[in-house]
Amino acid sequence: MDNYSTKWIKVSEPFPHVAHIELARGPVNAFSQEFWRSYGKLFDSLVADGVDVRAAVVSSAFPKIFTAGLDLGDAGNLGGDGADTSRDGARSSLAMRKMLLEFQHAIGAPERSPFPVIAATHSHVIGLGVDLISACDIRYAAADSKFSIKEVDIGLAADIGSLAFLPHITGNHSLVRELAYTARPFSAAEAEKIGFLSKVVPGSRDEVVKEALELARFISTKSPIAVSGSKHLITHARDHSVPENLAYTGAWNAHALMTNDILENLQATKQKRKANFAPLKVPSRLDGPKL
């Protein structure tokens, strides 16, 4: 799977059907416009090409930091190539809005992917880093992780995902507002307490990546239809009422229950063997590279 690696992103397959996506833009994984575009394109390409990924882990390749957030030295990030000041304010604003929506779309790519994405953080997770991991399904953090919604210290409201995701993830609007208004750092222990994390792993990068990859490996042994359906329906539940989600789930499972994965699960259990599931996407001669 390393043919999907790019200049600043390393992609490997530590276990069958598990993608390890490592952020590797030295020295501190600051996100330039090229970097965040590449990040979003990676997930979209894996899906479009029909690569048989069943779980993924996003981590930093650097032992001392996860990400410093937005690269403030990159003019494109601040609208330098989007907002043309020679035009009137309305047209400049439309260009800026277009760039921000593209930015949100790129960082939100894990949520669109049919496979679960696990964030494995350590050390500093600043600004855009919180946006990035908020769009992931599961968040594991090393005990030395320190988070900060830093945008207010730059002079703007966080606009790539944190303020949209965090109230739903934590259910604590008071604390989300406090963290957003003050930009104060908060620890892995506090992040776990408010429900932002599902696990804090003693140690730093190596320890949390190991735990996250093991979780991804375990998930990858389950039915892709069941896992991808669960992901889709949980996301739908977040954005809809309980009656709406139950009705939608009924329609969804009316076709999902036709899967051969159920029979394969039953036979594997009876025969005391590992289940062997087909890829989520049925390959065709027009599809791109596979694992």
Automatic annotation (TrEMBL):
The keyword Isomerase applies. InterPro entries: ClpP/crotonase-like_dom_sf (IPR029045), Ech1-like (IPR045002), Enoyl-CoA_hydra/iso (IPR001753), Enoyl-CoA_hydra_C (IPR014748). GO terms for molecular function: delta(3,5)-delta(2,4)-dienoyl-CoA isomerase activity. The keyword Cell membrane does not apply. GO terms for cellular component: mitochondrion. Keywords: Fatty acid metabolism, Isomerase, Lipid metabolism. Pathway: Lipid metabolism; fatty acid beta-oxidation. Pfam families: ECH_1. One of its GO terms (biological process) is fatty acid beta-oxidation. Coiled coil: none annotated. Belongs to the enoyl-CoA hydratase/isomerase family. This is Uncharacterized protein.
